[in-house]
Amino acid sequence: MIPEPAAPPAAALRSPYRPGELALSPEEMLHAGHRAVRLVVDRLRNLAQDRPHAVADPATLRALLDESLPEEPGDLTALLDHLAADVLPLGIRFDHPRCFAFVPTTGNYPAFLADLLASAFLSVPGAWLVGSGPTRIELTALSWLRRLLGLPDGWGGLFVSGGSVANLTALAAARDHHLAGDLTGARLYCSTQAHPSVARAAHLLGLTRDQLTALPPDDTQRLDPHALAARVDADRAAGLRPFAVVATVGTTGTGAVDPLGELARLCHRHGLWLHADGAHGAALALTDRGRPLREALGRADSLTVDPHKWLFQPYEAGCVLVRDPSLLRNSFRMARHHLDTGYLHPAEAHGDEINLDDYGPQQSRGLRALKLWLSLKTFGAAAFRRAVDHGLALCDHAAARITDHPELALVTAPSLGILTFRYRPPRGAPAPPAPEALDGLQHTVSRAVCADGRAMILTTRVRGRSVLRLCTINPATLPADIDTVLELVVRAGRAATAAGEGAARGNGRPGT
């Protein structure tokens, strides 16, 4: 007869692990947890007073962080303070109200807590057996996202790390559906303005570089349906096998939206898969202004959305949605890829259970959907619609100020909260700079504004020329923040122009 185990000492009941073995006392956990929350709240409360960008050189960071493997325990609360003060702030602060670089993301407090809970509860929405509650949360969040975007019933998918994996997942389904494992002569089409993740997805899917056809955009930086149709016809005539088109809903450079309606008709006519990369721009469909986009999105075969962009979630929170979710399952279901079926057989879904690891490349999956679920439940969908509208209004404000200023020139009009413009010297300058010099001036202005420390603005290229770019989607940004960055641009442009003129005069003096 096996004896009953002795009751553990009272101290051991305070933790799921033996004290000192990957465990802290409840008092220590609460103390560190309270400190962590205080650090988060202080950061959010004081963010506008900080610089939008901070960086340290590699030598400084090596001295700070390149250390021996710790063998003995440390003070968790002190370590949290160290990270919050010396390490984590080193980078772009995407939620700063005067950070206009790339596509800013803000996150929100309920979503931060969602990440904490999902990690602590080891929530895995992979197999129903492993995480039925987390799976139901993700399915609900997917349903809400579908409704927010106005997609038809029947669409489904899953949350992934971001737009790169969402594009890869959708294009894998397109490949399997249209090519049946034979990549011979396959052709995938996009614009040169498409995100680099499209090219990386093609590479990972086994396509060579010449099997991805990137077409030059039209004058509005959009994929030209007529040029695409001509290329598809020519490729078919040459015996090649076109199978999919990627339409971008919000290019990263200018926010351009490829003509989804025309592309959908073309793809339907040619039997091609249409994937809409709406990582940033699909969120426009939340608003009244973006309502016409809803019908167009619904005509795609698959869609990428990044809630960690214009739906104000922390990283990582990407999503892939598909008109026919069974096509994802055809590509990724675990039974298709089993080598040893015995180990995973107990986790197979039964009845109306759903195993989300059958729908994408990950088996072990974090509960990314909880961020969106909890923030929508906390704030309500109407708050998200207002926040998206706010970003559009800020961009319109910036365009009006740029248009009215004699030293600023709008290059691309507001689109999805993104615009581009250039600083140009005042008319009193001795001579207009050459195009190359004007390109260099934009980079000089960008560097000067960032060095000032009050705002961050970067450059991109449009039709071969360097331009300044604003992305205004932060709901904490005010019109005054827009005015500040434009004032800094003008000051920097004037200073750079004056310095250039002085150098030119100096070079013209005898003996210099």
TrEMBL record:
It comes from the Bacteria. InterPro entries: Aromatic_deC, PyrdxlP-dep_de-COase, PyrdxlP-dep_Trfase, PyrdxlP-dep_Trfase_major, PyrdxlP-dep_Trfase_small, Pyridoxal-P_BS. One of its GO terms (molecular function) is aromatic-L-amino-acid decarboxylase activity. The keyword Lyase applies. PROSITE patterns: DDC_GAD_HDC_YDC (PS00392). The keyword Lyase applies. Gene3D superfamilies: Aspartate Aminotransferase, domain 1, dopa decarboxylase, N-terminal domain, Type I PLP-dependent aspartate aminotransferase-like (Major domain). GO terms for biological process: amino acid metabolic process; carboxylic acid metabolic process. It holds the Pfam family Pyridoxal_deC. Its cofactor is pyridoxal 5'-phosphate. The modification N6-(pyridoxal phosphate)lysine is found at K309. Keywords: Decarboxylase, Lyase, Pyridoxal phosphate. Belongs to the group II decarboxylase family. This is Glutamate or tyrosine decarboxylase.
